[in-house]
Specification:
alpha+beta, five-stranded antiparallel β-sheet, globular
């Protein structure tokens, strides 16, 4: 068996033969006779002589190449990386965002505050492959996804995947897939506009899309986001200007589809990584349900909503601004909309109702925020945070724990609000943005964030007061649970 697997051999065999999609992305199956590795849902009958690896990176490091039938590049993100240390988790997040596409391991190591050799050792020990191997697999998988699902040119795919030249891309692709990119590229989808790219982002079922849309609709900032017609849409920043993103669910395929308009090739990888984080597509619902099933308070809630996810915010700075605006202020969404209208970049939304980008730190650092209806205290807090980002006091690409610690110590912010930023801005599964039930929540680690979302969903539905178990969910508890009312 490979590095980092937490299931016994018998369970891996059962999962492989059942082709259960809930295990998709949790491990890969390497066939010894063909030297090909597959997803556990691969439709091709497996040979009897196989080896299991926790990630595709490990399988490739061992000399196996990806299956062209089941397409490992389209699998959900690996939850194996959830259990790594804070330093490694941050490095992996930066790699996923393209930190090694142009930069070096030394530069990456400096960003996480350790030496290059130490980072190599930590990642190899905890993940089973070196940083450059992880980046290489990420680039190849994303390139294969674009080849199969889009009509982009080979040159644009090479650029979007982080390769400096088409020649480097061709050489790397042939070495891994034993074929040239042009030999396996897909066909253009009927009706696909020239300025539009559609990507499939896989997840492990179940996925509660109804609750997802309901939550996002309550949180949507007019002009920046829209929830309508079973889809979530927003304006997002790109390298050469604003892009439009629309995301819908395709439950039969266990995937979300992401349509991106007006994006350049360098935008695509970062947009896909952000969408995976915002919709928590690396989650393993079966593992989370198992962790809570015997808890008197949470057991009934996870059984009622097994597909609930940690729903994030598009950027960490946006999460910070939202946390400040939501702090007990009725109508905060309209205030946020006025903030975007006054200080955010203009967007040509092509009749979509998306007209503005969410403001950046440089837009708010010295802005007259009182002019959009913010009180002086919140205005000062927002300006202070924005300036801290600009002067480097607050490093948004730092580990979630460090960002939360820095925020909690800033005047006007507070610990609960900082935890809310960790939960929604960094997909931190153990963040718990409430002082209520904090001692009780110790039993829910390392999934306290999921517990919090389940409690919020139950409270909003009005079933909370009837939920049995320690602590209860009475009206006062619901008010205390609300992270907005705990921020002070």
């Amino acid at each position: 068996m490979g590095f980092g697997l937490d299931l016994p051999l018998e369970a891996l065999d059962r999962a492989r033969f059942s082709r259960d999609p809930r295990f998709d992305g949790r491990f890969v199956v390497a066939v010894l006779s063909t030297h090909i590795y597959c997803r556990p849902i691969c439709p091709v009958p497996f040979a009897t002589s196989v080896r299991y690896y926790a990630t595709a990176v490990e399988a490739e490091a061992a000399g196996y190449r990806p299956c062209l039938r089941c397409r490992p590049e389209a699998a959900p993100g690996s939850p194996a990386w959830r259990g790594t240390s804070a330093t490694v988790s941050r490095a992996l997040r930066l790699i996923d965002e393209g930190a090694l596409d142009q930069g070096s391991v030394s530069t990456l190591a400096a960003r996480v505050g350790i030496g290059a050799r130490h980072l190599n050792r930590l990642i190899t020990e905890q993940v089973g492959a070196a940083p450059l191997a992880i980046a290489q697999t990420r680039r190849l998988h994303f390139a294969k996804l674009l080849l199969s699902d889009t009509a982009m040119s080979i040159t644009d795919i090479a650029l979007a995947s982080g390769y400096g030249s088409v020649r480097r891309f061709n050489d790397a692709f042939k070495a891994s897939y034993k074929r040239a990119p042009r030999e396996i590229r897909g066909r253009r989808r009927p009706g696909e506009a020239a300025n539009q790219i559609t990507l499939r982002l896989a997840y492990r079922p179940p996925f509660d899309w109804t609750e997802t849309l309901a939550f996002l609709a309550r949180e949507a900032v007019p002009g920046v986001e829209r929830v309508a017609g079973g889809a979530y849409a927003r304006a997002a920043p790109g390298v050469d200007g604003p892009v439009l993103v629309e995301i819908t669910d395709v439950p039969a395929s266990h995937a979300l589809t992401m349509q991106v308009r007006d994006a350049g090739p360098p935008d695509l990888s970062a947009l896909a990584a952000t969408a995976r984080r915002v919709f928590d597509l690396a989650a393993d619902p079966a593992r989370i349900t198992c962790a809570f099933q015997d808890d008197a308070l949470l057991g009934p809630l996870v059984r009622a909503r097994p597909g609930l996810r940690l729903l994030g915010v598009w950027s960490a700075f946006e999460a910070i601004v939202r946390a400040v605006l939501e702090d007990g202020a009725d109508g905060w969404r309209l205030t946020a909309a006025r903030l975007a209208e006054r200080f955010g970049a203009r967007v040509d939304g092509e009749g979509s109702g998306l007209t503005r980008l969410f403001p950046r730190p440089e837009d708010l650092a010295f802005a007259d925020l009182e002019a959009v209806g913010l009180d002086p205290a919140r205005s000062d807090t927002l300006r202070r945070v924005a300036r801290a980002v600009l002067d480097g006091t607050l490093k948004l690409n730092d580990a979630a724990e460090r960002v939360m610690h820095t925020l909690a110590g800033m005047p006007g912010f507070g610990a609960a609000r900082a935890q809310w930023v960790g939960l929604r801005g960094y997909d931190e599964p153990d963040a718990f943005p409430s002082d209520s039930l904090r001692q009780r929540a110790e039993a829910w680690r390392p999934w306290r964030g999921y517990a919090f979302f389940h409690l919020l969903a139950a409270a909003r539905e009005g079933a909370a007061s009837q939920t049995p178990g320690p602590g209860g969910l009475s009206g006062p508890f619901v008010r205390r649970l609300d992270p907005v009312r705990q921020a002070g």
